[in-house]
Amino acid sequence: MPIYPIYARSIVCYNARQLVTNLRTRLQLQVYIGSIALAAVVALGASPARAGQTAPAAKKPAAAAKPKPAAAAPARQVSSRRVSARARAAATAREMADTAVPRYKVDASGELVPDVHAAAAIIYNPETHEVLFEENSLSQRSIASITKVMTATVFLETSPDLTQQIIVTRGDVYRASTTYLRSNDKLTVGDLLHLLLIPSDNAAARALARVSPHGSEGFIRRMNEKAAELGLESTRYADPSGLLSDNVSSAYDMARLIAYASGDERISNIMRLPEHTVRTARRTINFRNTNHLLGRQEFDVMAAKTGFISKSGYCLATLLRLPQGGQQVALVILGARSNAARFMETQNLFNWLASKATTVFATKTPAITTPEE
């Protein structure tokens, strides 16, 4: 019997078995894919009937569904940003309400007076020593960097050589918070005064105290002695920069001090500069004045100093010249709620006084001569 028919039947049987195996494998694969698609669609919230219609197309969403937790992170970030944006908008709205000018109220005597939102405020006439307006002006409060007005006053009373070169030490810059200086910077005493009074550099204050004839500790004692000599009864100093909250005074005392310090042109000329540049051996340092009243046409600034730490709030002591008659007045704001608020509070006081200047400065006997307790 020829073997060819037997061989042929074997081949046919083998091919049949392979065909059945392939069909079974394909069927299992389709069932597996369908199961995955169905699970994916159910996970996405679709109905089983719809899943059966779109099983092949559901293959891609199934793969995309796995990194779902990773996709949630950007969503949380967007939500966080929205919350932060709403908080900033609310804070801005509160600040705009606080700083809207003009803002007045009627006092106990029926007079229209500034409605002050800061903790303390005063308008003081340094020529006659009259208090033209005040609110809590005798309250003792932290004054932050307004401290530097006394730092400059005490340092300059010994007529130092402003061209003297000094080297900044590590102790000067250590935890100085606000400073443009670095350890081993070499610059002049005059440069340090500019850094002290324009950008309110804390390391500059420490360096000036250190190189003064008094030394660092003796310098603070001299600051307190000078305050006593000037009759600043509410004023105490604990460091030359104002970083410590133990530097305290009152709006009344600071009005008198800014008026006194402005008489030294070495101080007032620097305070009126909107910006300045100093050069060390290694670099050039550019800085701007922290007093935002400078450069505004409505204000003739004779002298000013800002201050801020969390304990003090935002503070400003300034000496301004009125457009009518040229009288000088000291305006002090202590404990304002924001950086913008201290300048707007000052503007509100100034506008109120300017509107009354003709009658206020023509009056021989002022309504208020000293602040009330």
Overall pLDDT level: 83
C-alpha Rg (nearest Å): 37 Å
Range of strand content: 15-25%
Percent of residues in helical segments? 40-55%
Order the strands across the largest sheet as they lie in space.
4-3-13-12-11
CATH level-two architecture of the largest domain: 3-Layer(aba) Sandwich
Q: How far is the N terminus from the C terminus?
A: 135 Å
Largest sheet: 5 strands, antiparallel
Name of the top-level CATH class of the largest domain:
Alpha Beta
Shape: globular
* CATH H-tier superfamily of the largest domain: DD-peptidase/beta-lactamase superfamily
CATH topology description of the largest domain: Beta-lactamase
Given as residue ranges, the uncertain stretches (5+ residues, pLDDT < 50) are: 1-16, 31-59
Label this structure with key terms.
373 residues; Beta-lactamase; 5-stranded antiparallel sheet; two-stranded antiparallel ribbon; 46% helix; globular
Structure write-up:
The protein has 373 residues and is of the alpha+beta class. It has 2 domains: 4-65; 96-360, Beta-lactamase. The chain has 12 helices and 13 strands. It has helices spanning 4-43, 48-53, 59-65, 68-99, 147-156, 170-173, 189-197, 202-211, 215-229, 251-261, 265-271, 339-360; strands spanning 104-106, 112-114, 120-125, 130-135, 141-142, 165-167, 186-188, 248-249, 275-279, 284-288, 300-309, 313-321, 328-336. The strands form 5 sheets. The chain has a 5-stranded antiparallel beta sheet, with helices on both faces. A two-stranded antiparallel ribbon has the order 1-2. A hairpin with a 3-residue loop joins strand 11 (300-309) and strand 12. Helix 7 (189-197) crosses helix 8 (202-211). The chain is globular and about 60 Å long. The termini are far apart.
